[in-house]
Amino acid sequence: MNAAEGLTVGILGGTFDPVHIGHLIVAEEIRVRCNLQKILFIPSAHPPHKAAREITPPQLRWEMVCLAIQDNPYFEASAIEIERTGLSYTVDTLAQLRGIWDQKTQMSLIIGTDEAIDVPTWKQPERVFDLSAVLVANRPGFDINTIELRWRKMMKFVRVPQIEVSSTAIR
Fold first, then answer.
1. Global confidence as pTM
2. What are the domain boundaries of the chain?
3. Which of 35, 109, 126, 133 is least surrounded, with the fewest CB atoms within 10 Å of its CB?
């Protein structure tokens, strides 16, 4: 993705096994509500939190994401994690993007409340917040009050429509 000076980009990483309409709706809702110019979908090559289960090969998930987003001019896909060796850590991806884009490009990491609860277990969570704003989409069954206050104070919460679909159920 070629970021122009001052671009505001939402970054939506995930296993996307498979990508589904819920991902697309959340991305578009957050793009509109947070006035983002682009949403960058980044399929995770080797997600550390899913090491114990079998996942579809990264190249196939990449192709599914590309097909799913092709009709939205505000959506782009990046193979940044697929091209990098080792586990796919958010902080590494954000640092790599910051090295590619100019300093005026504003990055906003998009996560769900289910992921926000786990922020303390992430690799270098403090640096994640230094590199990017963090936008949190509500997810059914997850209470934002269970997110540690230290992290919750640095997050922006965005209410999005709830779609009853999950990659687990689709598989």
1. 0.91
2. 9-163
3. 35
